[in-house]
Amino acid sequence: MALQTIDNQACVAHSAKDVRVETQQLSFDPATQVLVRVARGGICGSDLHYYQHGRAGMSILKHPLVLGHEFVGVVEQIPPLNGLDLHVGQRVAINPSQPCNACTLCLQGKRNLCRRMKFMGSAQFDPHVDGGFRDRVAVSPHQCIAYAAAARDEVMVFAEPLAVALHAVTQAGDLLGKRVLVTGSGPIGCLVMAVARLAGASEVIGTDVSERCRELAQAMGADRVVDPLDQNAVAAWEADGGYFDVTFEASGAPAAIASTVQFTAPKGHIVQLGMGAARVELPLGALLVKEIELVGSFRFIDEFTTAVRWLESGRLDPLPLLSAQFPAQDITAALELAGDKAKAAKVQLVLG
Q1: Where does the Alcohol dehydrogenase-like N-terminal domain lie (predicted)?
Q2: Quick check: is 106 in a domain?
Q3: Is there a domain that residue 14 lies in?
């Protein structure tokens, strides 16, 4: 079957502070790919980095890139034999992960660590992998996770960041009855707090230097939220070797990363999911003598489907994190607001 080509409006990052809405041609294989009309997308930290700096970590814009990896839409066209129960008109959340499914890591079930991962909206490889801030996308059937028509799109867009939070909690192990600290109360940190609460944690405490973020953390289920600069408030966490059974570091700030060792109890766990400075100082001696387990958490595996099911059923409400929504034509204004942490947590684009 021959490739099909359609015109497509897209939000395209050309360089730092240069994002344009422009017409592109989308070519896809109707024999193997699902055509989805995108309804809504959420702006993530990597989208902001491409806009603000022309790069996200080591992923540098070498040519124009369609932004966006948090998005949902409606199925418009399906392959004749898609192997899944998909139909035209179905609402779907798109899993942006495209692992190779052939390397050792993939075959071991560690697909999130695939070295050849083609993650949508990423400039890691050249050519880049375009994202979902456009009229339509063509994806694998297995990337389409269907949800009920009654579910609200502005809720379902949170599937990708919720999957990140679910994977972090999976990395921590059993949280039942545990005392949990989350450093950094941005969208991911707040979602980790909500998941930790649902996982049975006996106490969930968050930190953030921003008063607005602290208020959001409480709205998302934290028992208490503290300004980490308040020494009187945090001093008690260091007594007797540390207070928390599990600490999730979601800020990426060097000072916050170093503090996790002091705050975590002997034999406790630290899960690092915040990305910030490439190198930080860590009190290694304290980590060793307290036998703390330090693990990383990167993206997600099957947690994406779990996230869709939780949001679809209303098990978790992410809407306190939704600060604003913009039409796609106002992508620059949306990115500017999303980059102002004093005013916004999660900003969404209405694309269809």
Answers
A1: 31-146
A2: yes
A3: yes
16 and 58 co-located in one domain: yes
Q: Half-sphere exposure of 340 toward its Cβ, with a 13 Å CA cutoff?
A: 11
Query: Which CATH number is 223's domain given?
Result: 3.40.50.720
Find tokens 């099957």 and name the residue.
Answer: 302
In a domain, 53, yes or no: yes
Answer for the pair 250, 182: CB distance below 8 angstroms, yes or no. Answer: yes
Per the DSSP assignment, residues forming a β-bridge with 171 are none
pLDDT in tens, 31-84: 999 999 999 999 999 999 999 999 998 899 999 999 999 999 999 999 987 667
The Cα 11–Cα 62 span in angstroms is 16
**Looking at the structure, do residues 107 and 26 belong to the same domain, yes or no?**
yes
Cα distance between residue 69 and residue 304, in whole Å: 13
Nearest-angstrom CA–CA distance, 270 and 287: 10
Q: Are residues 137 and 201 in the same domain?
A: no
Residue 168, CA atoms < 13 Å, CB-side half-sphere: 28
Q: Check whether residue 118 and residue 22 sit in a common domain.
A: yes
Q: What is the pLDDT of residues 266-309, one digit of tens each?
A: 999 999 999 877 788 899 999 999 999 999 999 999 999 999 99
The dihedrals phi and psi of 226, each to the nearest 5 degrees, come to: -125, 145
Q: Do the beta carbons of residue 158 and residue 42 sit within 8 Å?
A: yes
- Does the pTM surpass 0.70? The reply is yes
In the chain, which stretches have pLDDT less than 70?
A: 1, 82-83
Q: Give residue 77's domain range.
A: 4-146+318-350
Rounded distance between C-alpha atoms, residue 199 and residue 12, angstroms: 39
Do 289 and 265 contact (CB within 8 A), yes or no?
no
Is 157 inside any structural domain? no
CA distance 272 to 255: 13
